[in-house]
Design brief:
- With 93 residues, the protein is α+β, with helices and mostly antiparallel strands.
- It has one domain: Nuclear Transport Factor 2, Chain: A, CATH 3.10.450.40.
- Helix content is 33%, strand content 30%.
- The protein has two helices and four strands.
- The protein has a four-stranded antiparallel sheet with strand order 1-2-3-4, with helices on one face.
- β3 and β4 form a beta hairpin.
- The longest helix is centred in the first third of the chain and has 21 residues.
Amino acid sequence: MTNKLLISAAATIAALTFSSTAFASPVCTAQPQSKWLTPAKMKSKIAKMGFKSIKVFQVSGSCYEIYAINKDGRRAEVYFNPVTGAVVQNNVD
């Protein structure tokens, strides 16, 4: 009975560990926020990339993160390097 309990507890801890890292935002920059593009400049860059209907624009860790519609009309969650404006991670539905 004790071995089953230990195995169950270990499996639960492993599942919680993996699920929490799966939802963590990527590391986009180590630069201080004083070096970041302003939100207005970043929003302009994002619009030039073809993203529309930006529903969320936020700071997420060391990234700018948006929820928007991409140029193909698909929903996207995108993380940007806030210093260069480059896409770091692009999750499309």
